Predict the structure.
Amino acid sequence: PQAAGSGIPLIKAYLNGVRIPGLLRLRTLVAKAVGVILSLLGGLLCGKEGPMVHSGSIVAAGFGRGRLPFCGKDCLLFEELRSDHEVRDLVSGGAAAGVSAAFGAPVGGTLFSVEEAASFWSNELTWRVVFAAMTATFFTNLFLSAAVGHFTQLSSPGLVRFDIFQEDMAFDLVEFPIFVLMGVVGGLVGALFVIINYKLTVFRYRYIRRKWMMVAETALVAMATAGVGFVFIYTINDCTDIEPYDHHHAIVAKVFCKGDNQHNSLTSLFLTTPESTLKGLLHDKIGSYKVTTLLIFLVLYFLLSVWTYGLSISSGVFIPSLTIGAIWGRLLGYGCMEIFPHLKNNLGKYALLGAASQLGGIVRTTISIMVILVECTGDITLGLPLMMVLIISKWVGDFFSTGLYEMNIHVAGIPMLPSEPPPMFEDVKASDIMSKPVVCLPTICSVGKIVDLLKVETSCGFPVVEVENDSDSGSLETYGKLKGLILKSQLMVLLNFRIFAPDGAVQPRCLRSAKFRDFYSAQYKISDLNITASDRQCVMDITKYMAHNPFTVRISCSLPRLFRLFRGLGLRHLIIVNDKND
């Protein structure tokens, strides 16, 4: 199930601190890669960019969890990269590498990881992510160049390239109101896309839950996409001469045309890959497509793209969003040519700005999209207009709905920690929002109580307190002087290696930290541990393995201050204590 969709919302949630089972597993990578290939071969309106981000994250996480069987034992790879902190940094670099490999944009990939994926950033992480992005771009260029027979001549930096514009991309100051209008249109259409897809997603969660239903819906969308295209190509007479407009980047097909030197421009839009369609809209000359053709294609492409995104397949939304924007951007360019004939209008310029505005209006990302498009086109001339339309489209879209990825996270019920605390909560104190009752552990605790606790408790960490009564006679849900914090994963490791002894006996020797990292990465369950009835009577000394100085705040701490501390330090647990450290 984790291989469905683009994967970016789940990666974003993971980097925010949410643990999603199976998200970064090898089988998910295989399903993702095979799925996106079949989705594109099936003619669905989707892109490969989102799955590339997810795939890059899985490959990166594999460096911290890799193991090879050797002589009946596991030979651990990159043992020092097994902590949660290191794996999280690797996933951030993998997300950037995925974008870089897709678009050949290492700087844009790095900024995408900063702006959209990672929730926690550091200076050390910056150079790691940049290095991963540059390496991904280099090897993508190397392999693609070798595939076309030029192994030493690196000329294909990314899977998706928009090619260099041959026309002058300069703009006039009087066009700035047009750019503002394009930003507004991108935000409105993007919000409409998100709202319709939200209703579709909710409908799927409620009614399309069986596997055969998911397969049937995907087959229905594929047939509708192919059928609608052929019907409109047949019914609409859009045949033009090939000779004046031979600069097509999409295919040129003589479908349903009577003349030998004619082609149907609708085939250059429908019967080709999404990337080729986008290139044609960006680079084809004036007259390649009729206005009515583009209007019909805009409506059909928008509706089919909304329907396709959210299917139980591996798919992305980057290329469909860019294509939708390029269509209405090209239409707006026709209008500008009629209204301002004295200006040197370039349809490719308006198509590119429309594409950027539309993508920004759907995913609500600004800086990284601008840099990616600049790197893909190799032209910085439109840097300011691109930034303008992206910011305006985000503002307009946020007025009506959240971004597409945030919507997916919300519908999936995944908790996300925002970047800023909620407004007007200065008077709310820590005592008003803390979890209670708190499940605590004594410093010396019986194995049976620990096992019973791990079976029912979903918390990942437990405060360790010093209680006055005997640890075996009291309840686990007790309070006392705070001594430290023990993680659920650490308790699992201690139980697995039987770091306990009968009451009064000498406790076993301490474990190395590598044991904790290795065992935790394997993701064992409490049911996998063989704890006997005699083991349940033993006791465990937690003080040797707990964190002796966990982060704490007083009960009088305000919510904004507590939130910034928790968010800024990337904490998982924050213990609330009173003036007596209870």
User: Anything to note?
Assistant: The CA atoms of residues 169 and 349 lie 6 Å apart.
